[in-house]
Amino acid sequence: MLDGVMLLWFVLTAAALLFVAVDIRTTPESAVLKWGFVLLTAYTGVIGAFLYVLGCREPLPGLHERYVAARWRQTLGSTMHCVAGDGVGILAGAVLSSVFGLAGLVEVVVEYILGFAFGWTIFQALFMRDMAGGSYLRALRSTFVAELLSMNLLMAGMVPTVMALKSRIPFAADPANPRFWFVMSMGLLVGFIFAYPMNWWLVAYHLKHGMMTVRPAAAAAGAHAGMDAAAPHASMSMGSGEPPWPSIPVMTLLSFLALVVGVAIAFLLRAT
User: Fold this and answer.
1) Which one, of 76, 70, 2, lies nearest residue 33 by Cα?
2) What does the alpha-carbon distance between residue 199 and residue 201 come to, in Å, rounded to a whole number?
3) Cα 169 from Cα 171, distance rounded (Å)
4) Residue 241: alpha-carbon gap to chain centroid
5) Are the beta carbons of 123 and 146 closer than 8 angstroms?
6) What pLDDT shows up at residue 134?
7) What is the pLDDT of residue 242?
8) Considering only CA atoms, which of 113, 195, 191, 188 is closest in space to residue 157?
9) Could you tell me the CA-to-CA distances from 258 to 80, 151, 244, 252, 265 in Å, in that order?
10) Which residues contact 266 (CB under 8 A, 6 or more apart)?
11) Cβ-contact 203, 75 below 8 angstroms
């Protein structure tokens, strides 16, 4: 039964991934977010493709700016960007942990470190450095807190899901077995759901970018108002506006509390 479900999942994921990879080329979105949706679809299959169509794909020519301006779509782009980047490091950590026989809390730490490192230094700071005036160091500083808070919630949802499934599905800890990748997909999907509310708060207080629109210069000149073409426009809005409530230290504490609770639940589920 499980093998049949997984076969269907992987077949649908392949079809969804092909659709998104081809279709998104004509969507007036930033390159890094395009890659983000491709990665998200690789992780979450038809769900990722559905989120792309519903949240980013331009419904009619010239409407992308207004279409993605909705807060929930801005948050979708922010959360997707987090999960796509962090997911690469998390998957690398899970594979390395299996190869070197790491398990339990050590495996969680390895996945956290690699996930945060890749998401922060590559997907956030490096790929989005233009939003910080082209300075990589400034991009590192400006994205650290947002990446940390989002990563904590992602792991809070992913870790108990993965541990619970691995303890109940034979061979799910072996990267050479399709069950491993199915379990990791389910974990990242749940992690996405957990990270969404935190990203809503981050976007609401301009601590993190959301969806964007990038058009050729000629097209951008006639585009509608909103989060329009250029990355510098997005950078000016980040970190501006009213002071966050709750404050950043409070949200940081809450994010670590959620992470600790998630890990504790994971070990309880593994023991039962």
Assistant:
1) 76
2) 5
3) 7
4) 24
5) no
6) 87
7) 84
8) 191
9) 20, 11, 19, 10, 10
10) 108, 159, 160, 162, 163, 164
11) yes
CB 240 within 8 A of CB 115: no
Give the number of other Cβ atoms within 10 Å of residue 162's Cβ.
Answer: 29
Distance of CA 150 to the CA centre of its chain: 9
- Tell me the C-alpha to C-alpha distance, in Å, between residue 214 and each of 59, 70, 81: 15, 17, 16
Counting runs of H as helices and runs of E as strands, what totals does the chain give? 11, 0
- Per-residue pLDDT reduced to its tens digit, 225-269: 443 333 333 433 455 568 999 999 999 999 999 999 999 999 998
CB-based contact 46:39 (threshold 8 Å): no
- On the CB side of 84, how many CA atoms lie within 13 Å of its CA? 24
SS3 266: helix
User: Residue 56: what residue type?
Assistant: C
Q: What is the pLDDT of residues 160-211, one digit of tens each?
A: 999 999 999 999 999 999 999 999 999 999 999 999 999 999 999 999 989 9
Q: Of 113, 96, 115, give the one whose Cα is nearest residue 43.
A: 115
Question: Residue 66 and residue 82: Cα distance in Å, rounded?
Answer: 23
Q: pLDDT tens digits for 117-127? A: 999 999 999 98
One-character DSSP codes across 97-157: HHHTT--HHHHHHHHHHHHHHHIIIIIIIITTGGGGTT-HHHHHHHHHHHHHHHHHHHHHH
The region that residue 169 occupies, defined by phi over 0 for left and psi between -120 and 50 for alpha, beta otherwise, is beta
Neighbours of 68 (CB within 10 A): 25
Q: What contacts 103, CB < 8 A, 6 or more positions away?
A: 97, 173
3-state secondary structure of 8: helix
CB 34 within 8 A of CB 125: no
